[in-house]
Specification:
Blueprint (H helix, E strand, L loop, with lengths): L7 E3 L9 E6 L7 H14 L3 E5 L2 H7 L4 E3 L27 H13 L4 E6 L1 H23 L5 H6 L4 E6 L15 H22 L2 E5 L7 H10 L15 H12 L8 E5 L11 H20 L7 E6 L2 E6 H16 L3 H8 L1 H14 L13 E7 L6 H14 L3 E5 L2 H6 L3 E3 L18 E2 L7 H11 L3 E6 L1 H13 L10 E5 L15 H18 L6 E7 L6 H10 L3 E3 L7 H14 L6 E7 L8 H11 L5 E6 L11 H25 E2 L4 E2 L7 E7 L2 E6 H4 L3 E2 L4 E2 L8 H7 L5 E3 L24
Parallel strand pairs: 2-3, 2-5, 5-6, 6-9, 7-8, 11-12, 11-14, 11-15, 15-16, 16-23, 17-19, 17-20, 18-19
Antiparallel strand pairs: 1-27, 3-4, 9-10, 12-13, 21-22, 23-24, 25-26
């Protein structure tokens, strides 16, 4: 259904009238499954289809009866924030038999269900595909046994299957992330952060066992996100003599003889529990909507597909090709072809492993190359969780590349004041889990003090700059680029890594810190919604940060199940406000007697949070009452999420490697110095759709609204209709990026160079 001209499609054109869709969760549970179920139900009802729950997975399909129940809009209320799967999951031996699948087919035909949405792992999806292939034969058998009429064979001739992968292990080929993986990482990192304090108090070593079955993803990414000293994963089994190497590494960190306490912690099923993260809610919601679209568009000849995440896009991939690739990984590991197994896992896994090796295993100084280059690292703008992980990564990669790395305190203010000192490998130990900015950060731009900054660069012989920060960092690089005409000190490689909770930097879809802020918003909204469970008929108005950028309000609204989100990028007037009030008035007549409205802080200078609160309070008199909450700086604080730790670590490592290449390219042997004055030596490293890209900041000027400090085009605006659909508003949706049935080639489809999905 992809539209080459990118037109918006009204869902009335994709009618589900006369169709019945069933949704089930199978295999191990995973946080976010409920968000996927909710999205399937509401999208299915939105397009006019009947939607059924199948309780207890395939067992419920085989048993039938009350296990297969029709779903309503209200029946998926309050599911978004609940972990596990509220419709239940079970292993079913009977479905593996022909007789079991015959019973299941009979139960579906009795209700006219020919569209199946399966949320589970590769085993569950393989079972669904077999069921689909046998379908016509099963119906013929049911006719022969007198259980259904002959006309049912024609009426229900084809079974359509769409899969979504729900698994904390992230072991399915074809998708960057599976539903539940990010939440599992949250549980692991929460425990690791707690253990770190006791480990430091007693000079102890802790060994943690995490889940993941035959896939080392959780262990590897957790190791990256917490700065673990050693990781053992199936794809990289320990070499002979690994015990001595590990002891040698640890003795340098603790005591000379390994006579200290060691404690083992097995995390177990705690990794599967708890509320889903913001990432998993958004991922599952997008996949659920896409799954319904896929079912509406499928024909008898369309192969069964699985809805996957590739970069920032939902794509459809042939189910069995992905399953076969997943099985190939296990086969390679069984045959001890570990390098091949790592490649088959995809470039994301491969990059995680390379980055971990680069950062965790320090070489002796005698083995390091000597570059004779000095690189300065600083933070610019407001603090954002994940900045410290990015700085740690930059420092350690820089040292590994043979450079001297200098830390600048308090941004460009500290720069011109001479707050510059060399920073060593051990100085950044334990930084990944720290919130805010340990270097200190200011919003000061360099233009006013460019002469003093140039003098400091001469004094410390700075050959390259790496800036971690937000919109001010972008503006700073533009000013330094322009200053090259006057000061040769700025004719050096300069790179920026975007870090801001507002996610308002041009040239990148995501910034370090935004995920942590989203989780803070969602967690607060969950609590606020829970407070309304005892007091019915209440609407909450929540103000989020973000400057003029509506990312936090929009994506936070989707993750929290908001009824509306007001933002600057989508102008609204009094009629829109009135329509929202009327919508909430109707909602109060149902069993869902509460409302949640988000407002970006600068969405409108006249329709303030107070104004909207007063308007809703007046118009809702006798129907609902209102409360307001300004979230404020709590969105900027706290420990970074696993996503931000990992994203900051990988993007910063890539930036420092670029700096090294540029230093080599721009070093003039005859003059004995670095000279770089081309546009491509002053870049921003950003995530664009499916890849990390270095972009000259000068070329990004045309994409920027400098007055409102936002990019002129923002990808996440495409997600806003999803929030409206799931809140029961009639709207349109741009499906230009979805609907393709892509085939898996080599590793994973158009995999990110350094996957944003961790």
């Amino acid at each position: 259904m992809a539209q080459p001209d990118g037109k918006k499609i009204f869902f009335e054109n994709l009618s589900g009238a006369g169709k019945a869709i069933a949704v089930l969760t199978s295999g191990g549970d995973a946080q976010g499954m409920n968000a996927a179920v909710r999205a399937v139900v509401r999208m299915g009802l939105y397009v006019g289809a009947k939607v059924y729950f199948i309780h207890e997975g395939y067992q419920g399909m085989v048993d039938g009866g009350d296990n297969i129940r029709e779903a309503s809009w209200e029946s998926v209320s309050s599911m978004l924030q609940v972990g596990g799967t509220v419709i239940g999951s079970a292993r079913c031996k009977e479905f593996r038999t022909h007789e079991g699948r015959l019973k299941a087919a009979h139960n579906l035909v009795q209700r006219g269900i020919t569209n199946l949405c399966v949320i589970g792992g590769d085993g569950s999806l393989t079972g669904a595909n077999l069921f689909r292939e046998e379908w016509s034969g099963l119906l013929t058998e049911l006719v022969e046994q007198g259980l259904i009429e002959q006309d049912s064979v024609q009426k229900y001739s084809a079974l359509h299957i769409v899969g979504m992968v729900g698994s904390i292990d992230n072991d399915f080929c074809g998708t960057d992330m599976t539903i539940g993986t990010d939440s599992a990482l949250h549980r692991i990192i929460e425990v690791v952060d707690a253990i770190m304090t006791t480990a430091q108090s007693h000079q102890r070593t802790f060994v943690l066992e995490v889940m993941g079955r035959h896939c080392g993803y959780l262990a590897l990414v957790s190791a990256l996100a917490c700065g673990a000293d050693w990781v053992l994963i199936p794809e990289m089994p320990p070499e002979d003599g690994w015990e001595d190497k590990m002891c040698q590494k640890l003795s340098a960190l603790v005591v000379k003889n390994l006579g200290f306490d060691t404690r083992v912690t097995i995390l177990g099923h705690v990794q599967r529990g708890g509320t889903p993260s913001a990432f998993d809610r958004i991922l599952a919601s997008r996949m659920g909507v896409e799954a319904v679209l896929a079912l509406l568009e499928t024909t008898a000849n369309t192969p069964a597909c699985v809805v996957s995440l590739c970069g920032n896009q939902s794509v459809r991939l042939p189910l069995m090709e992905c399953v076969e690739m997943t099985q190939e990984v296990q086969k390679a590991m069984d045959e001890k072809r570990f390098e091949e197994a790592v490649k088959l896992r995809g470039r994301s896994f491969e990059n995680n492993l390379k980055t971990y090796k680069l950062l965790a295993h320090r070489k002796p100084e005698s083995d390091l190359p000597r570059s004779n280059f000095n690189v300065a690292v600083l933070n610019v703008g407001a603090p954002a969780a994940g900045m410290n992980a990015a700085v740690r990564s930059a420092v350690r990669v820089g040292i590994s590349e043979g450079h001297k790395v200098f830390a600048v305190s308090d941004g460009f203010e500290g720069f011109y004041k001479g707050q510059i000192k060399e920073i060593k490998w051990a100085d950044v130990g334990g930084w990944t889990g720290q919130g805010g900015s340990l270097l200190g950060t200011k919003r000061t731009l360099p233009a006013k003090h460019v002469d003093k900054i140039a003098a400091q660069m001469r004094q410390h012989n700075i050959n390259a700059l790496l800036i971690v920060g937000g919109f001010e960092a972008f503006e700073s690089l533009l000013q330094l680029f322009e200053a090259r005409a006057t000061y040769e000190e700025f004719c050096i490689p300069m790179c920026m890594v975007p870090a801001t909770i507002s996610n308002n930097v041009p040239g990148t879809n995501l910034s370090i810190g935004a995920d942590t802020a989203l989780n803070a918003i969602v967690e607060t909204c969950d609590r606020i919604k829970q407070s309304a469970s005892g007091t019915k008929r209440r609407v909450f108005i929540i103000e989020t940060m973000g400057g003029y950028c509506g990312y936090l309000a929009s994506v936070g609204g989707l993750a929290a199940g908001a009824d509306a989100a007001y933002i600057y990028e989508e102008p609204f007037d009094i009629r829109d406000l009135q329509a929202n009030v009327e919508h909430l008035t109707e909602k109060m007549k149902t069993s869902i007697q509460r409302g949640l409205v988000l407002r970006n802080e600068n969405s409108n200078e006249n329709y303030t949070t107070d104004f909207i609160y007063q308007l809703y309070s007046e118009e809702g008199k006798g129907v609902f009452d209102c409360r307001k909450n300004v979230l404020g700086h709590m969105q900027q604080g706290g420990a970074p999420s696993p996503f931000d730790r990992n994203f900051g670590t990988k993007i910063s490592a890539k930036a420092m490697q670029w700096v090294t290449r540029k230093l080599g390219e721009t070093f003039r042997q005859d003059e004995g110095r670095v000279f770089a004055n081309s546009e491509d030596s002053c870049c921003l490293l950003g995530m664009r759709r499916r890849a990390l890209v270095f972009q000259p900041v000068v070329q990004l000027k045309g994409e920027t609204d400098f007055i409102h400090r936002i990019p002129k085009e923002q990808w996440w605006l495409k997600l806003r209709p999803l929030m409206k659909i799931l809140a029961k508003y009639k709207t349109s949706y741009d499906v230009s990026d979805s609907g393709q049935l892509e085939h898996v080639v080599h590793n994973r489809p158009k995999e990110l160079d350094a996957s944003v999905a961790m």
